[in-house]
UniProtKB/TrEMBL annotation:
Domain Fe2OG dioxygenase: 169-269
UniProt keyword Transferase, yes or no: no
Name assigned to this protein: Fe2OG dioxygenase domain-containing protein
Sequence similarity: Belongs to the iron/ascorbate-dependent oxidoreductase family.
Top-level taxon: Eukaryota
Native source organism of the sequence: Lactuca saligna
Keywords associated with the record: Iron, Metal-binding, Oxidoreductase
Keyword Nucleotide-binding: no
Amino acid sequence: MEIERVQEIASLSNLNGTIPIEFIRSENEQPATTTIHGVTLEVPVIDLSDLDDQKLVASIFEASKDWGIFQVVNHDITSEVISKLQKVGKEFFELPQEEKEAIAKPVGYKGVEGYGTKLQKEVEGKKGWVDHLFHRVWPPSAINYQFWPKNPPSYRETNEQYTRLGGEDLTYMLKINYYPPCPCPELALGVVPHTDMSSITILVPNEVQGLQVFKDDHWYDVAYIPNALIIHIGDQMEILSNGIYKSVYHRTTVNKEKTRMSWPMFLEPPSEFEDIHTDQPSPDTFFSRSSIYRVTICRRTIACRLPTIINLLACGQLNHLLYLTLPSKIDLTLELLEFVF
């Protein structure tokens, strides 16, 4: 069965100035009526060039606890690498439709990898104004190149350069979101309100405004900072911290004239564990708070190479759960308490 792609629907919709009814959100979801207009949310910005590690740890802890989202600048990924990542992603979505369909998710495929349009069913049959490409980028043993574009020719090299980050024990899943121009952006959403199931998400957006965060019972646009990485705390980190860190509730709006794109990288825990079951953690676990989650905790020793931000996040008030030595801001050896839902 042929699947309609939003990119194709957008081409027709922009000609007649309307969008199909399945993309029109209910009034209590529409950006026109639910966004605080004229105010851009200044989420915490953390400068990783600061040599005071204690200050960085404290800043990341406070941002993760109070916001669940922050932006980092002066990180280890160069603007050239980010620009190349954005360039090859954009070029893929500009390919002829039949070439993109060559790496589409197969019918009946249970995984998320591949080119696609609808990741999950929504209530009332509504749809998001977005196409996407999903594939694992790390470790090499987890990669299925069946779902990697062959064009543009530099796609693989560029993505491998961007994702030379982790050890074999962590899985990195890249998603490229493509939000084409929408003639009725006040009525539609790119991605509905949600939290990420990952432990941490590292997001690279383009310059088109679209990311919104739910803060103090209102939806706000998040300020765009060129070459900054946006860090989302995910559900797994909230559970691991017993609710100290907050999984950020966010959504995506669309633009009438411009294409918005984003590159979220989802960090996933190891797939195999030595299980340690716990229903009632001891008082010194989870920051001396009563447990608010029932989890399966798993102990594993991992040697890995991670971005600076993850090292510091791990340090920030997770000492009851994470023991690590930090010989540099990039290389670390840690004994990690992982968990399974």
